[in-house]
Amino acid sequence: MTTAEIVESPTDAIEKARASSLLSPRFYTTDFAAMDRIDVSPLRTEWDAMLAEYEGDNNHDHFQRTEQFAAEVAQLTPTWSPELRQEFLDFLISSLTSEFSGCVLYNEIQKSVTNPDIKQLMRFMARDESRHAGFINQSLRDYGLGVDLGNLKRTKAYTYFKPKYIFYATYLSEKIGYARYITIYRQLERHPDKRFHPIFRWFERWCNDEFRHGESFALIMRANPNLLRGGNVLWIRFFLLAVYATMYVRDHTRPQLNAAMGFDVTDYDYEVFRITSEISKQVFPVSLDLDNPVFRAGLNRLLDLQTRMGAAKARGGLIGKMRQAGLALAGAATFARLYLLPVHRHDLPAQVRMAPVW
Protein backbone atom coordinates (compact mmCIF):
# COMPACT_ATOMS: atom_id res chain seq x y z
CA MET A 1 0.00 0.00 0.00
CA THR A 2 1.31 3.42 -0.88
CA THR A 3 2.15 5.83 1.92
CA ALA A 4 3.06 8.77 -0.31
CA GLU A 5 1.58 11.92 1.17
CA ILE A 6 -0.66 14.03 -1.03
CA VAL A 7 1.30 16.85 -2.66
CA GLU A 8 -0.91 19.42 -4.35
CA SER A 9 0.86 22.77 -3.95
CA PRO A 10 4.36 24.28 -3.72
CA THR A 11 3.78 24.58 0.03
CA ASP A 12 3.14 20.82 0.23
CA ALA A 13 6.27 20.16 -1.82
CA ILE A 14 8.60 22.25 0.33
CA GLU A 15 7.08 20.89 3.53
CA LYS A 16 7.78 17.38 2.30
CA ALA A 17 11.33 18.33 1.32
CA ARG A 18 11.83 20.02 4.70
CA ALA A 19 10.49 17.09 6.75
CA SER A 20 12.87 15.16 8.98
CA SER A 21 12.17 11.45 9.36
CA LEU A 22 13.94 8.11 9.22
CA LEU A 23 13.13 7.83 5.51
CA SER A 24 13.68 11.41 4.31
CA PRO A 25 17.01 12.75 3.00
CA ARG A 26 18.84 14.98 5.47
CA PHE A 27 21.02 18.07 5.29
CA TYR A 28 24.44 17.79 6.93
CA THR A 29 27.14 19.93 8.43
CA THR A 30 30.55 18.80 9.65
CA ASP A 31 33.85 19.75 11.30
CA PHE A 32 35.39 21.96 8.63
CA ALA A 33 38.74 22.25 10.43
CA ALA A 34 39.07 18.46 10.47
CA MET A 35 38.03 18.33 6.82
CA ASP A 36 40.77 20.86 6.05
CA ARG A 37 43.39 18.46 7.44
CA ILE A 38 42.55 15.63 5.02
CA ASP A 39 45.65 14.48 3.13
CA VAL A 40 45.32 12.78 -0.25
CA SER A 41 49.03 12.82 -1.13
CA PRO A 42 49.42 8.99 -0.83
CA LEU A 43 47.21 8.72 -3.93
CA ARG A 44 48.33 11.90 -5.69
CA THR A 45 48.44 10.44 -9.20
CA GLU A 46 44.92 9.01 -8.99
CA TRP A 47 43.63 12.16 -7.32
CA ASP A 48 44.98 14.52 -9.98
CA ALA A 49 43.60 12.31 -12.75
CA MET A 50 40.16 12.42 -11.11
CA LEU A 51 40.24 16.21 -10.77
CA ALA A 52 41.16 16.45 -14.43
CA GLU A 53 37.99 14.48 -15.23
CA TYR A 54 35.94 16.97 -13.21
CA GLU A 55 37.67 19.84 -15.00
CA GLY A 56 36.78 18.27 -18.36
CA ASP A 57 33.11 18.39 -17.29
CA ASN A 58 31.75 15.91 -19.81
CA ASN A 59 28.17 16.55 -18.62
CA HIS A 60 28.22 20.33 -19.00
CA ASP A 61 25.64 20.16 -21.79
CA HIS A 62 23.58 17.25 -20.50
CA PHE A 63 21.00 18.75 -18.16
CA GLN A 64 19.04 20.67 -20.77
CA ARG A 65 15.37 20.11 -21.44
CA THR A 66 14.31 19.61 -25.04
CA GLU A 67 11.08 20.31 -26.89
CA GLN A 68 10.51 16.55 -26.98
CA PHE A 69 10.75 16.47 -23.18
CA ALA A 70 7.94 19.00 -22.77
CA ALA A 71 5.81 17.28 -25.40
CA GLU A 72 6.15 13.90 -23.65
CA VAL A 73 5.21 15.41 -20.29
CA ALA A 74 2.05 16.93 -21.75
CA GLN A 75 1.11 13.69 -23.47
CA LEU A 76 1.84 11.11 -20.78
CA THR A 77 0.84 12.52 -17.42
CA PRO A 78 -2.94 12.60 -18.03
CA THR A 79 -2.86 8.79 -18.32
CA TRP A 80 -1.47 8.26 -14.82
CA SER A 81 -3.49 7.00 -11.91
CA PRO A 82 -3.67 9.37 -8.91
CA GLU A 83 -1.56 6.89 -6.92
CA LEU A 84 1.19 6.78 -9.55
CA ARG A 85 1.20 10.56 -9.83
CA GLN A 86 1.67 10.98 -6.07
CA GLU A 87 4.37 8.32 -5.85
CA PHE A 88 6.27 9.84 -8.77
CA LEU A 89 6.06 13.30 -7.19
CA ASP A 90 7.27 11.78 -3.92
CA PHE A 91 10.19 10.25 -5.82
CA LEU A 92 11.05 13.58 -7.44
CA ILE A 93 10.89 15.54 -4.18
CA SER A 94 12.97 12.95 -2.33
CA SER A 95 15.53 12.90 -5.16
CA LEU A 96 15.62 16.70 -5.30
CA THR A 97 16.21 16.91 -1.55
CA SER A 98 18.99 14.33 -1.71
CA GLU A 99 20.75 16.04 -4.63
CA PHE A 100 20.40 19.50 -3.07
CA SER A 101 21.65 18.15 0.26
CA GLY A 102 24.90 17.22 -1.48
CA CYS A 103 25.07 20.61 -3.16
CA VAL A 104 24.66 22.45 0.16
CA LEU A 105 27.17 20.28 2.02
CA TYR A 106 29.84 20.38 -0.67
CA ASN A 107 29.43 24.13 -1.14
CA GLU A 108 29.74 24.80 2.59
CA ILE A 109 32.88 22.67 2.80
CA GLN A 110 34.54 24.41 -0.14
CA LYS A 111 33.79 27.82 1.37
CA SER A 112 35.12 26.80 4.80
CA VAL A 113 38.41 25.06 3.98
CA THR A 114 41.74 26.22 2.59
CA ASN A 115 43.08 22.77 1.66
CA PRO A 116 43.36 23.16 -2.14
CA ASP A 117 42.60 19.49 -2.89
CA ILE A 118 39.42 19.41 -0.84
CA LYS A 119 38.36 22.90 -1.89
CA GLN A 120 38.63 22.10 -5.58
CA LEU A 121 36.88 18.75 -5.26
CA MET A 122 33.96 20.18 -3.31
CA ARG A 123 33.51 22.99 -5.81
CA PHE A 124 33.21 20.49 -8.66
CA MET A 125 30.80 18.23 -6.79
CA ALA A 126 28.62 21.16 -5.68
CA ARG A 127 28.45 22.19 -9.35
CA ASP A 128 27.23 18.75 -10.38
CA GLU A 129 24.66 18.42 -7.60
CA SER A 130 23.32 21.89 -8.32
CA ARG A 131 22.65 20.83 -11.91
CA HIS A 132 20.93 17.64 -10.77
CA ALA A 133 18.70 19.45 -8.26
CA GLY A 134 17.82 22.16 -10.76
CA PHE A 135 16.92 19.61 -13.42
CA ILE A 136 14.58 17.74 -11.07
CA ASN A 137 13.04 21.02 -9.93
CA GLN A 138 12.18 21.85 -13.53
CA SER A 139 10.14 18.64 -13.69
CA LEU A 140 8.36 19.55 -10.46
CA ARG A 141 7.48 22.92 -11.99
CA ASP A 142 5.63 21.05 -14.74
CA TYR A 143 3.10 20.24 -12.03
CA GLY A 144 3.23 23.66 -10.38
CA LEU A 145 5.31 22.21 -7.53
CA GLY A 146 8.72 23.83 -7.89
CA VAL A 147 10.63 24.00 -4.60
CA ASP A 148 12.23 27.26 -3.43
CA LEU A 149 15.71 25.87 -2.87
CA GLY A 150 16.95 28.99 -1.08
CA ASN A 151 14.09 28.68 1.40
CA LEU A 152 14.80 24.97 1.80
CA LYS A 153 18.47 25.67 2.57
CA ARG A 154 17.52 28.22 5.24
CA THR A 155 14.76 26.26 6.95
CA LYS A 156 15.57 22.53 6.80
CA ALA A 157 17.17 21.07 9.94
CA TYR A 158 20.85 20.12 9.68
CA THR A 159 22.46 17.00 11.16
CA TYR A 160 26.06 17.22 12.39
CA PHE A 161 28.31 14.38 11.20
CA LYS A 162 32.00 13.94 11.86
CA PRO A 163 34.01 13.94 8.61
CA LYS A 164 34.43 10.15 8.70
CA TYR A 165 30.68 9.70 8.95
CA ILE A 166 30.29 12.07 6.01
CA PHE A 167 32.73 9.92 4.05
CA TYR A 168 30.97 6.63 4.82
CA ALA A 169 27.42 7.92 4.36
CA THR A 170 28.04 10.11 1.34
CA TYR A 171 30.17 7.51 -0.42
CA LEU A 172 27.32 5.04 -0.05
CA SER A 173 24.72 7.62 -1.04
CA GLU A 174 26.58 8.42 -4.26
CA LYS A 175 27.26 4.79 -5.15
CA ILE A 176 23.78 3.54 -4.35
CA GLY A 177 22.44 6.52 -6.30
CA TYR A 178 24.45 5.29 -9.29
CA ALA A 179 23.17 1.74 -8.81
CA ARG A 180 19.55 2.90 -8.55
CA TYR A 181 19.67 5.14 -11.61
CA ILE A 182 21.55 2.72 -13.84
CA THR A 183 19.24 -0.16 -12.90
CA ILE A 184 16.22 1.97 -13.80
CA TYR A 185 17.87 3.14 -17.02
CA ARG A 186 18.76 -0.40 -18.13
CA GLN A 187 15.25 -1.66 -17.33
CA LEU A 188 13.62 1.09 -19.39
CA GLU A 189 16.18 0.61 -22.15
CA ARG A 190 14.94 -2.98 -22.42
CA HIS A 191 11.28 -1.97 -22.02
CA PRO A 192 10.82 1.50 -23.54
CA ASP A 193 7.04 1.15 -23.20
CA LYS A 194 7.57 1.42 -19.43
CA ARG A 195 9.36 4.78 -19.68
CA PHE A 196 6.41 6.84 -18.49
CA HIS A 197 8.37 10.09 -18.03
CA PRO A 198 11.18 11.58 -20.16
CA ILE A 199 13.44 12.32 -17.17
CA PHE A 200 14.50 8.67 -17.20
CA ARG A 201 16.26 9.22 -20.55
CA TRP A 202 18.83 11.36 -18.72
CA PHE A 203 19.72 8.76 -16.09
CA GLU A 204 22.70 7.07 -17.77
CA ARG A 205 25.05 10.07 -18.02
CA TRP A 206 23.53 11.54 -14.87
CA CYS A 207 24.42 8.53 -12.73
CA ASN A 208 28.00 8.65 -13.97
CA ASP A 209 28.30 11.92 -12.03
CA GLU A 210 27.14 10.03 -8.95
CA PHE A 211 29.69 7.31 -9.62
CA ARG A 212 32.55 9.82 -9.88
CA HIS A 213 31.50 11.52 -6.67
CA GLY A 214 31.73 8.17 -4.92
CA GLU A 215 35.17 7.63 -6.42
CA SER A 216 36.28 10.89 -4.81
CA PHE A 217 35.36 9.69 -1.34
CA ALA A 218 36.90 6.29 -2.07
CA LEU A 219 40.23 7.98 -2.78
CA ILE A 220 39.98 10.08 0.39
CA MET A 221 39.34 6.99 2.51
CA ARG A 222 41.98 4.84 0.84
CA ALA A 223 44.52 7.67 1.24
CA ASN A 224 43.68 7.67 4.97
CA PRO A 225 43.51 3.93 5.74
CA ASN A 226 42.91 4.47 9.47
CA LEU A 227 39.32 5.24 8.42
CA LEU A 228 38.92 1.65 7.19
CA ARG A 229 40.19 -0.45 10.05
CA GLY A 230 39.82 -1.07 13.75
CA GLY A 231 36.69 0.30 15.38
CA ASN A 232 35.82 2.21 12.24
CA VAL A 233 34.79 -1.05 10.58
CA LEU A 234 31.87 -1.13 13.02
CA TRP A 235 30.76 2.25 11.72
CA ILE A 236 31.07 1.02 8.15
CA ARG A 237 28.79 -1.91 8.98
CA PHE A 238 26.31 0.49 10.58
CA PHE A 239 26.13 2.78 7.55
CA LEU A 240 25.85 -0.12 5.11
CA LEU A 241 22.88 -1.51 7.00
CA ALA A 242 21.26 1.89 7.57
CA VAL A 243 21.45 2.86 3.90
CA TYR A 244 20.13 -0.48 2.64
CA ALA A 245 17.34 -0.68 5.20
CA THR A 246 16.20 2.89 4.51
CA MET A 247 16.08 2.26 0.78
CA TYR A 248 14.20 -1.03 1.21
CA VAL A 249 11.50 0.47 3.40
CA ARG A 250 11.13 3.64 1.34
CA ASP A 251 10.92 1.83 -2.00
CA HIS A 252 8.20 -0.47 -0.72
CA THR A 253 6.04 2.57 0.00
CA ARG A 254 5.96 3.26 -3.77
CA PRO A 255 4.38 0.13 -5.27
CA GLN A 256 2.70 1.91 -8.19
CA LEU A 257 5.91 3.65 -9.23
CA ASN A 258 7.89 0.42 -9.32
CA ALA A 259 5.10 -1.50 -11.05
CA ALA A 260 4.85 1.19 -13.73
CA MET A 261 8.54 0.63 -14.53
CA GLY A 262 8.01 -3.14 -14.63
CA PHE A 263 9.90 -3.89 -11.43
CA ASP A 264 9.24 -6.28 -8.65
CA VAL A 265 10.33 -3.85 -5.94
CA THR A 266 12.09 -6.46 -3.82
CA ASP A 267 14.04 -7.81 -6.80
CA TYR A 268 14.93 -4.25 -7.81
CA ASP A 269 16.23 -3.38 -4.35
CA TYR A 270 18.38 -6.49 -4.08
CA GLU A 271 19.84 -5.85 -7.54
CA VAL A 272 20.77 -2.33 -6.39
CA PHE A 273 22.24 -3.76 -3.17
CA ARG A 274 24.23 -6.29 -5.19
CA ILE A 275 25.74 -3.63 -7.45
CA THR A 276 26.48 -1.33 -4.52
CA SER A 277 28.11 -4.14 -2.53
CA GLU A 278 30.30 -5.08 -5.47
CA ILE A 279 31.38 -1.46 -5.97
CA SER A 280 32.00 -0.81 -2.27
CA LYS A 281 34.61 -3.58 -2.11
CA GLN A 282 37.00 -0.97 -3.55
CA VAL A 283 37.07 0.74 -0.16
CA PHE A 284 35.16 -1.16 2.54
CA PRO A 285 36.74 -4.32 4.02
CA VAL A 286 33.30 -5.79 4.78
CA SER A 287 30.03 -6.26 2.93
CA LEU A 288 26.64 -7.48 4.09
CA ASP A 289 25.45 -11.02 3.41
CA LEU A 290 22.53 -10.13 1.14
CA ASP A 291 21.49 -13.76 0.65
CA ASN A 292 21.18 -14.57 4.33
CA PRO A 293 17.48 -15.42 4.87
CA VAL A 294 17.65 -13.81 8.31
CA PHE A 295 18.80 -10.56 6.70
CA ARG A 296 15.95 -10.63 4.21
CA ALA A 297 13.41 -11.46 6.89
CA GLY A 298 14.77 -8.60 9.00
CA LEU A 299 14.26 -6.05 6.24
CA ASN A 300 10.69 -7.26 5.82
CA ARG A 301 10.21 -6.94 9.57
CA LEU A 302 11.44 -3.32 9.45
CA LEU A 303 9.02 -2.63 6.59
CA ASP A 304 6.11 -4.08 8.55
CA LEU A 305 7.01 -2.06 11.65
CA GLN A 306 7.30 1.15 9.63
CA THR A 307 3.88 0.52 8.05
CA ARG A 308 2.34 -0.03 11.47
CA MET A 309 4.04 3.09 12.81
CA GLY A 310 2.46 5.09 10.02
CA ALA A 311 -0.95 3.75 10.98
CA ALA A 312 -0.32 4.55 14.67
CA LYS A 313 0.76 8.09 13.78
CA ALA A 314 -2.38 8.57 11.70
CA ARG A 315 -4.51 7.36 14.62
CA GLY A 316 -3.00 9.95 16.93
CA GLY A 317 -3.87 10.44 20.56
CA LEU A 318 -2.25 8.76 23.54
CA ILE A 319 -2.82 5.23 22.27
CA GLY A 320 -1.31 6.13 18.90
CA LYS A 321 1.79 7.63 20.56
CA MET A 322 2.21 4.62 22.82
CA ARG A 323 2.00 2.29 19.83
CA GLN A 324 4.55 4.39 17.96
CA ALA A 325 6.95 4.16 20.90
CA GLY A 326 6.55 0.40 21.16
CA LEU A 327 7.03 -0.08 17.42
CA ALA A 328 10.10 2.18 17.46
CA LEU A 329 11.67 -0.03 20.14
CA ALA A 330 10.84 -3.12 18.09
CA GLY A 331 12.45 -1.48 15.06
CA ALA A 332 15.62 -0.69 17.01
CA ALA A 333 15.80 -4.28 18.26
CA THR A 334 15.35 -5.62 14.72
CA PHE A 335 18.06 -3.30 13.41
CA ALA A 336 20.39 -4.47 16.18
CA ARG A 337 19.83 -8.13 15.27
CA LEU A 338 20.58 -7.37 11.64
CA TYR A 339 23.70 -5.46 12.64
CA LEU A 340 25.03 -8.48 14.53
CA LEU A 341 24.67 -10.88 11.59
CA PRO A 342 27.94 -12.22 10.11
CA VAL A 343 29.39 -10.18 7.25
CA HIS A 344 31.67 -10.98 4.33
CA ARG A 345 35.26 -9.86 4.77
CA HIS A 346 37.73 -9.24 1.97
CA ASP A 347 41.00 -7.55 1.15
CA LEU A 348 40.99 -4.18 -0.56
CA PRO A 349 42.18 -4.15 -4.19
CA ALA A 350 45.46 -2.50 -5.10
CA GLN A 351 43.69 -0.40 -7.74
CA VAL A 352 41.25 1.99 -6.11
CA ARG A 353 39.45 3.56 -9.07
CA MET A 354 36.61 1.70 -10.78
CA ALA A 355 34.68 2.26 -14.00
CA PRO A 356 30.86 2.50 -14.19
CA VAL A 357 30.37 -0.68 -16.21
CA TRP A 358 26.95 -1.81 -14.99
Question: How many beta-strand runs?
Answer: 4
Please tell me how large the radius of gyration is. 20 Å
> What gap, in angstroms, lies between the N and C termini?
31 Å
Overall average residue pLDDT = 91
Short description:
The chain is mainly alpha-helical.
Outline the structure in words:
The protein has helices at 10-18, 32-36, 44-56, 67-76, 82-112, 116-141, 149-155, 163-190, 203-223, 232-251, 255-260, 265-280, 293-315, 317-339, and strands at residues 27-29, 158-160, 286-288, 343-345. The protein has 358 residues and is mainly α. A two-stranded parallel sheet has the order 1-2. It has a two-stranded antiparallel ribbon with strand order 3-4. It is globular, with a radius of gyration of 20 Å.
